[in-house]
Amino acid sequence: MKNMRKMMKEVQRMQAEMARIQEELASKTVEATSGGGVVRVVVNGHLEVKEIEIDPSVVDPEDVEILQDMVLAAVNEAIRKAQEMSAAEMAKVTGGLDLSGLPGGLF
């Protein structure tokens, strides 16, 4: 019984730490570019796109598809980087354990 209480306290501590990290992730950002840097996307740790910059030199009304592809590539890369950042921050708390299946809404 004593071990169970100790474990529950540890879970509560981890849960509080993870909640703090989730809050911090809103202000942390990652950046990705495509097309040699002509399209730049910034995404925060909550996977929200915060900025998209497009160099005017690549805006060609005759070839919108290339611009769309570059934006898509940069957004997807930025989201992937944000997911990696989030997972790395959570791993600091969980020691790499997958706690997603535990009750109590840890994730």
What are the defining features of this structure?
alpha+beta, three-stranded antiparallel sheet, 3 strands, 107 residues
* Biggest sheet record: 3 strands, antiparallel
Kindly state the percentage of residues in helix: 40-55%
CATH superfamily: Nucleoid-associated protein YbaB-like domain
Whole-number mean pLDDT: 87
SSE run: HEEEH
Structural classification: alpha+beta
How large, in whole angstroms, is the Cα Rg? 19 Å
What count of domains describes the coordinates? 1
The proportion of residues in beta strands is 15-25%
Choose one word for the global shape: rod-shaped
Query: What is the tally of helical segments?
Result: 2
Spatial strand sequence of the major β-sheet? 1-2-3
- State the CATH topology: Ybab, Chain: A
- Distance from first to last alpha carbon: 26 Å
Known CATH architecture: 2-Layer Sandwich
The multimeric state of the shown protein is single chain
Identify low-pLDDT runs: none
